[in-house]
Amino acid sequence: MDTGVILRILLLIGVFILLFLPTVWAIRNIAHRSFPTFKAKVIWFAVVTLLPPIGAFVYIAVGRQRASEIAEDVEAQEVDAEGEEDEELMK
């Protein structure tokens, strides 16, 4: 085989990996991260899998940060609600 052909094949493999890795990472992150609703998790999963490189980059840029903020707000509300229930039981 010609050296130029081997280099082109390696370049194509490198480009494929660079586009594929963020998609795999985003899918794994979506699976392990808590979202405010199951519906939000499914929507992000669909976006990332149906639009592999673009969906992954959008999730990394927008979805990951937003999901974390919303999940923290929901958890804080749940903790507040539990605290209020404890206070009512103590009365």
Description:
The protein has 91 residues and is mainly α. The chain has one domain. The protein has 3 helices and no strands. The model has no long low-confidence stretch (mean pLDDT 82).
SSE topology sketch:
Elements: H1 3-32, H2 38-50, H3 52-90
Helix pairs in contact: 1-2, 1-3, 2-3
Search tags:
91 residues; 0% strand
Largest sheet: none
Taking pLDDT < 50 over at least 5 consecutive residues as the criterion, the unreliable ranges are none
Helix content: over 70%
Number of helices: 3
Summarize, please.
This protein has helices spanning 3-32, 38-50, 52-90. The chain has 91 residues and is mainly alpha-helical. It is rod-shaped.
